[in-house]
Design goal:
The chain is an all-alpha fold and about 250 residues long. The chain has 2 domains: about 110 residues; about 70 residues, Serine Threonine Protein Phosphatase 5, Tetratricopeptide repeat. It starts with a helix and ends with a helix.
Length: about 250
């Protein structure tokens, strides 16, 4: 009996010790708190915008200049039209019309025997000025700026200057690989200026763009029309070669 009590007392002591050992750490040591992290200023970095190279900046400036010159030309032409419609007689000591300050308009005025410059003359001078400006960009390889100068060139009044502008715009769009524009502009050019030396080339360019757009059957039809309409042209010979290719 004494042995049993001794054994029971030992077991009870062991149980109490175990319970004390497995108490939660929070009751013994308290909750663990992360140390404060000192605030540090973030490095000041700008947004990494891409840097434009010098040629790209020149091209963009050229486009802006071309647009401004075109707007000025349109405004000058509009002023001249309003003056002629209203037939305003300048009073004494009134400054001469602004449109006569342009050197080309003055030359046309003098070459016309001193008579007023007609609306057709003003339009032709404007078309010629746009052509010369666009041609400079085209020769430099700045086709985007050239297209901006000639934007909207649709043959105008059918004059030679208007025709040149439209064909140069067609060539510009071709250089830029804008096939949809080439097909649209080339089709209008070939219909309006079908008697010009460049009409066969316009048709060939249309067919080339159609071919590149995987419209091969339509392209061959365009080239056959070219051969039928302009059989002796160099463009017709090129078209005959392309038709045979697969």
């Amino acid at each position: 009996m004494a042995t049993f009590k001794l054994t029971f007392t030992v077991l009870a002591a062991l149980v109490l010790s175990a319970c004390t050992a497995i108490q939660p750490a929070s009751d013994q040591e308290g909750a663990f708190i992360l140390p404060d992290i000192p605030d540090e200023p973030l490095p000041s970095r700008g947004i990494p915008y891409p840097k434009l190279d010098q040629q790209t900046q020149i091209d963009q400036l050229g486009i802006q200049v071309a647009r401004l010159e075109r707007e000025m030309d349109m405004m000058q032409t509009r002023v001249g039209q309003l003056e002629r419609v209203n037939k305003i007689r300048p009073a004494k000591n009134t400054a001469p019309a602004q449109r006569l300050n342009d050197a080309k308009l003055k030359a046309a005025y003098l070459n016309n025997g001193g008579s007023a410059v007609t609306n057709a003359d003003a339009v032709t001078l404007n078309e010629t000025r746009l052509y010369n400006q666009a041609l400079k960009f085209y020769q430099r390889g700045n086709y985007v700026a050239a297209a901006a100068v000639l934007r909207g060139a649709d043959g105008g009044n059918g004059s030679e200057a208007a025709r040149r502008n439209m064909y140069l715009l067609l060539q510009t769009q071709q250089r830029l690989n804008n096939c949809e524009s080439v097909i649209q502009i080339g089709g209008r050019y070939a219909n309006r200026f079908r008697g010009s030396a460049q009409a066969p080339d316009a048709l060939f360019s249309i067919g080339q763009c159609q071919y590149n757009m995987q419209q091969k059957d339509i392209a061959r039809s365009t080239w056959r029309k070219l051969i039928q309409t302009y059989p002796d042209s160099d463009a017709a010979k090129r078209a005959a070669v392309r038709i045979k290719q697969r």
